[in-house]
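User: structure tokens for Aldo/keto reductase, please.
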Amino acid sequence: MARLGKSDLDVFPICFGGNVLGWTADRDDSFAVLDGYAAAGGNFIDTADSYTAWVPGHSGGESERVLGEWLKARGNRDEMVIATKVGQWNQRPGLSAANIKAAAEDSLRRMGVEHIDLYYAHADDPDTPLEETLSAFDDLVRAGKVRHIAASNYSAARLSEALRISRREGFAEYVALQPHYNLVERAEFEGELAELCERENLAVMPFFALAKGFLTGKYRPGGDSSESPRAEAAREYLNERGVKVLAGLDEIATLRDVPMSSVALAWLSTRPAVTAPIASARNTEQLADLLPAADFELTEAELERLASASA
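Assistant: Done. Predicted tokens:
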């Protein structure tokens, strides 16, 4: 287990991404993959109120409901660290105090839990003063409905300002950041944002840690994976740099006899402040490709190989 920044949460080094729950994984598959994750020692599950509003026929909240059903069926709520988010669902948009309060109550009800362990601002809301957002989060923490708060999709400047305001006002502080970060998406996080997280001891949980599936090796030049809902997005990385990254992952995965997915996640785990990359699996076969990353260590030569390929 790894300590999540300045919080009192101890988490598995791979966070299970709940965006697949109720989407590419139906209820039975969702239960199976969550069972497999928990059996392997996993205890950290990430979802959001907006999951899976993008699916035709869905309205949002589906992932939280499936997760809540699983927690109730397994009776393991106290063993799990549950993270969810507010702010990007079209039915509960933004980070106003009223919306945060209402969204939190909705999420608690859908999941059938009494508190949220890690509650994210899903994205910065420039139309709402940070003081209002942070005050609302602080109210939830003081009421015992949220244990810790975190930010997703924040710039270094806004994250730094939020921390300053919380300290000035005595509000609960963000303890973690969820950025878009992986071997083929490095520029946005590396630099000022990474340095801030390291300096402030903020836990980092990268989303799209496998670049929408590209870093699994499933998508290749000339290949056909049109059956995947993420195929088109993943193919955006099929450029010269992306092919070099795949070659580096292939080489290491073959020599070390581990899945490419685990190599990509293990690389992320070596990066400054990264606590637990977020990765999804819609079935137990995909999950098996992720789990070795929890205790897989790359050599210095392998890290250099991947750094060179992804530069």
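User: Anything notable?

Assistant: The radius of gyration is 19 Å.
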